[in-house]
Design a protein that fits this description.
This protein is mainly β. The protein contains no helices and 5 strands. A 3-stranded antiparallel beta sheet has the order 1-4-3, with no helix packed on it. It has a two-stranded antiparallel sheet with strand order 2-5.
Length: 71
């Protein structure tokens, strides 16, 4: 996720998958270059929202992984 994708207060970015998962049984891992307490919200089969938990825009890239798991 590039810095230009973040907006709002707190700064958030929407991730949209190219191919939807069949369900929401997946884990989200977020790693940002900026020191933040990164969290996710609004998880769906087609994506999720990254919350930077800060009003200050990030200056470094933010990486994420979505890993499907079986229930």
């Amino acid at each position: 996720v590039t810095t230009s994708m973040f907006a709002g207060n707190p700064q958030k970015a929407t991730v949209t998958f190219s191919n939807a998962f069949p369900d929401i049984n997946y884990t989200i891992i977020i790693t940002g270059e900026d020191q933040r307490s990164w969290t996710w919200e609004s998880k769906t089969t087609t994506g999720f929202v990254i919350n930077s938990n800060s009003a200050i825009a990030p200056v470094g890239n933010t990486e994420w992984n979505a890993i499907r798991y079986q229930t």
